[in-house]
Amino acid sequence: MSDERNNRFRAARVSRFTESVIREMTRLAIRHKAVNLAQGFPDFPAPDVLKEAAARAVAEDYNQYAITWGSKPLRDAIAAKYLRFYSLELDPEREITVVCGSTEGMIASLLATTNPDDEIVMFEPFYENYGPDADLCSDRRRYVSLSPPNWEFDPAELRAAFGPRTKAIILNSPHNPTGKVFHLHELEQIAALCQEFNTLCITDEIYEHILYDGAVHIPILTLPGMRERTILVNSMSKTYSVTGWRVGWVLAPPDLTASIRKVHDFLTVGAAAPLQQAGVLALSMPDEYYSSLAANYLQRRDLLLDHLTAAGLSCFRPAGAYYVMCDVASFGVSDDLVFICHLIEKVGVAAVPGSSFFASSGAGAQLVRFCFCNKCETLDQAGRLLRRMRSGDLHAAELPTS
Length: 402
Ligand code: GLN
Known about the structure:
This protein is an alpha/beta fold and 402 residues long.
């Protein structure tokens, strides 16, 4: 677009962010026929019972709009699941909104609760969507660093990020991209600041059931004083391996739910009705479903860690979610984008450049994120390709520099 057209037709809010790097990596992976360990979506089938339930729902004619804030059976199923797992009593009529995936849940929540001069706090690195989410809603952001290897934050830095203008903190646990699972004492510090500064906590808990090595997920909503100031965003995508269904939900106190429902109604009207119906079955899956989900991901995590380590990458071991962050400094890399392009085009494996999880320029340039929501054979194939990088076929010295 010419500058003149840009000035005339491009909204300022759009200029502030770029397209998703994660999704761009998928396009590059397809173009170069690379094994896609970039965008986090399963390459294995969704559970048969869910596919059958979705097909049945279409055949039984759940084909028109559901109630805008979610079909009653699905909202009831969501309430029942939070009661079962967290002893949390929710009112499906006033505290639950079904949305088109947690992506819509997050942006609808921010649009409903923040104004341009409100500050939004987030931990860095962060899932890339939160950047544009915040940009679309507010002009001010504050970052709190999570430091490797354990991705801990400095309590003083967290406190310093809060001030009179702070409206919300975005929390994501289990955390994408690091795999950090926030501990109770960390959640308590966040909760205390939210109360002291009268702010909201908007929490993305999409990986709640994907936990390793005894890690426990605690919704911050369950901590004392947090019920009235927490907006919990979640979805079916990762727990039920249906990232393309785009069915998510937002739990919030009734007054906030009313605002979020208004935004949601005019953004999307509603999530796909037959898939909401299939969601009723998903949310009623027995305990064994969740334990085998975590056990299968544990196996994949360990397999990928072995492959990455054998290829000479230095890995941070995730306690949850399905990503491994690696430090690629030993490859002599100073630009993660160059490294990733080389990985996709020459090695045949796609991953996500670390810098896409940071706002500060230059940060994350020695980090790369691999996902492992894949069949073991896919991970093995990636492992074979990555190992060649070490054996000299594709030595670090060959990396283009720019
Ligand atoms: N959450 C996934 C990831 O981080 C998928 C992102 C997306 O494209 N919606 O890779």
